[in-house]
Design a protein that fits this description.
The chain is α/β, with parallel strands linked by helices and 183 residues long. The protein folds into 2 domains: 77 residues; 73 residues, no CATH class.
Length: 183
């Protein structure tokens, strides 16, 4: 499974493309450039392209065409970060289309963009008041939050299980039995 990501370094350095082995969680190369012309020489000499079955990346048309050409047997999968970002953008656009008043109220926009657990009590009250007056937007907002939960749940479960494995290894390494307690 291959991961492809672009990075901007500076005006002088420009863009680079990072290639990762997602099964091993390792970066295996960083190549200067982000379009086919800049990456062609590297990709032409890259071994094992035909064996790549999945490429996880953002959904830029440039990278999609590169993957289709150089990794002919690979299925393109959007990475979670970009799915969440795209969903956020589309929801905010829809909120603006459904309510003409929302664009004049930056506080409400900010509250709708912020994760619920990070809202202050004042922002929560502002958000809740707005949503109560706009039931269609409220339903879309609640759907959006459920989708975030689903998309992030797998990641959080993995972090939790990684922590649990680390905790068990640490306890056995130091000869600590039972449950770790806070003092």
């Amino acid at each position: 499974m291959l991961g492809i990501e672009e990075h901007f370094f500076s005006q002088k350095q420009g863009f680079a493309t990072t290639l990762c082995d997602l099964k091993k969680h390792k970066v295996f190369d960083i190549v200067k450039g982000r379009n086919e012309r800049e990456l062609a020489d590297y990709l032409n000499q890259l071994k094992g392209k035909e064996e790549v079955k999945i490429v996880c990346m953002d959904l830029s048309s440039t990278y999609r065409s590169i993957v289709k050409k150089y990794f002919p047997n690979a299925m393109i999968v959007a990475d979670r970060f970009h799915v969440v970002r795209l969903m956020q953008h589309q929801c905010m656009k829809t909120f603006r289309e459904l309510s003409e008043n929302i664009k004049y109220n930056r506080g409400v926009l900010a509250a709708l963009r912020t994760k619920p657990e990070r809202l202050t009590e004042g922002r929560k009250a502002l958000r809740d008041s707005f949503l109560k007056e706009n039931p269609v937007i409220e339903n879309l907002y609640l759907f959006q939050q459920r989708m975030y939960d689903l998309l992030l749940k797998k990641m959080m479960n993995k972090k939790q299980s990684d922590y649990q494995r680390f905790s068990v290894k640490t306890r056995s390494l130091f000869g600590i039995g039972g449950v770790l307690r806070e003092t």
